[in-house]
């Protein structure tokens, strides 16, 4: 009994090394963008909290 050969994937499913590197680069960029957005949101919230605290102390 012979073993079946490895199936041939369609060219659209084959990931070339350059494409894989580009995908990893985009993934890294997406992670950095998300981290920056979260950091900015956190800092803005902190600034608003400080401003509200300062307003309460002045009254």
Report on this structure.
This protein has a domain at 19-59. It is mainly α. The protein has one helix at residues 17-58. The protein has one helix and no strands. The chain is rod-shaped. The model has no long low-confidence stretch (mean pLDDT 81). It comes from Gemmobacter nanjingensis. Residues 1-59 are annotated as: Disordered. This is Transcriptional regulator.
In this structure, how is the largest beta sheet organized? none
Number of helices: 1
Unreliably modeled segments: none
> Fraction of residues in helices?
over 70%
Radius of gyration: 25 Å
Beginning-to-end CA distance, first to last residue: 89 Å
- Average pLDDT metric: 81
The SSE order reads: H
Q: Label the structural class.
A: mainly alpha
Which overall shape is indicated by the principal axes computed on the Cα atoms?
rod-shaped
Protein name: Transcriptional regulator
Organism: Gemmobacter nanjingensis
Region (Disordered): 1-59
Biased composition (Basic and acidic residues): 22-33
Task: Considering the chains and any ligands shown, give keywords for the structure.
mainly alpha, 1 helix, 71% helix, rod-shaped
What order do the helices and strands come in, and which of them pair?
Layout: H1 17-58
Structure, briefly:
By secondary structure, the protein is mainly alpha-helical. Helix content is 71%, strand content 0%. The chain has a domain at 19-59.
